[in-house]
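Q: For a teaching session next week I want to show students how multiple molecules come together into a single three-dimensional assembly. I've collected the sequence lines for a complex. Could you give me the predicted structure tokens for the whole thing so I can convert them for display?
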Amino acid sequence: MSRRIFSGPFLLFILCGTLIPLGVIAYYGITDRSGSFTLDNILAIASPEHSEALFLALLLALISTVICLLIAFPLGLILKDSRLGKKGFMVFIFILPMWMNFLLRTMAWQVLLERNGIINQLLDLVGLPHLDIINTPAAVVLGMVYDYLPFMVLPIYNALIKIDRHVIEAAYDLGASSPQVLLKVIAPLSLPGIVSGITMVFVPSLTTFAVSNMLGGGKVNLIGNIIEQEFTVSSNWNLGAGLSLVMMIFIVISMALIEKFDKNGEGNVL
Amino acid sequence: MKKTFKGIYLFLIMLFLYLPIFTLMVLSFNGGKTMNAWVGFSLEWYEEMFANRQIMEALGNTVSIAFWAASASTVIGVLACMGISAMKEKPRTLLMGLNNIPLLNADIVTGISLMLSFLMFGISLNYGTVLMAHITFCIPYVILSVMPKFRQLENHTYEAALDLGATPAYAFFKVVLPDIMPGIVSGFLLAFTMSVDDFVITHFTRGAGINTISTLIYSQVRVGIRPMLYALSTLIFVTVFIILIVVNIISHKKEEKES
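A: Of course. Below is the structure for the complete assembly, covering every listed component.
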């Protein structure tokens, strides 16, 4: 008996849980309600309502990814250098919120940002003007950064601690300044971590509908919200599937761009 | 100077990460209906939460789905690793590539595609469809945790056991399993967490009557039971914190013992 047969159930799940569903969503995307072939669902992305939602989603995802990177990289460097507390306890503190349900974490920001919420009450106390960002794209970006920051911290930290201390010391010995070491040694060597961090923040931000719905108050429509509403409210599944296909294309394009960047970076190291 | 700057930076990020969570914790002990003013310490929201059938049902569903999904995906994943590691290079690379699809794909696409498939084949959405969906997206995590252990495995010890007269099953349980056990445990835990955390895929594959904690929060967040959700989030946070601390301490002790 061949051992290969043990992978049978796995193959069944790949077939029924991944490949067939992808085929089904593609089928819905290129047919209309009666089942005849059409490209209308995919071309529907060109309508102002849909293309604006896609553009806004790309923009907000890009902004929150950049903010996460700008916060996480220095954080990773500090965590790498400092031997704070017992092994990895400090890192554990920064990763811990990841284990808490992201809807609860998003709800927390709702409570904080509300018009009569805690932040505004505190601002009242000290006599400062109100912070009115709830139900705006700014609040959605804040929610994305808050929810997905640990996904950026973890891979960057993991890449940073793998860097051989001697390589950095060698760079200093050869006369490199600290900005040079950072840009020419540490950054390229941690690039794989940065790249996976970017993917892990960018894709969920681009496709989210929960964060934008909870913190955008229905006023911030991202492509994820449009697709979700096609399935839950308007029940035009074909249109929803078609728009999902377009969104997938954008995910694949962004991943290809990121991958290319990664390869270039690694080429520089060699 | 540099050190204080680093300290301030760490402190600010910590504040950013934990202030919202602690705010919910404090509010969960606030009595009275008005949530924006401190009325006084009370446990009424905890009492109401435990008495709330919807919340308790959702909590039960979340735990039972996570347990069964993690168990099933662990069994399927370990079997898959046994099979895949016996394959030639080409089919192995292909299968590991296919394994990555659910990991890389957006949750919303996975959820929608599963929902459409269930309905297309006449399967009505209920507890079972959520469970199947969860098993599907948990398997890749198990395989990613267990596969490296199979690669490190000494094939000779297994063969030696067979040569010495062990049946393949006996050799597997006595020789192979102890070596891959750490991978299995971390795969199971990872699958369990992913299942508990999931909202999007559950949102699309659940029937009308089934709620997990995530879908309940999403549907109730604009209605009146919010203070109960604060109590719930406090409970979840404290539970997770204690579990992770214990796991940390155990693995730390283990490492000390080994070194």
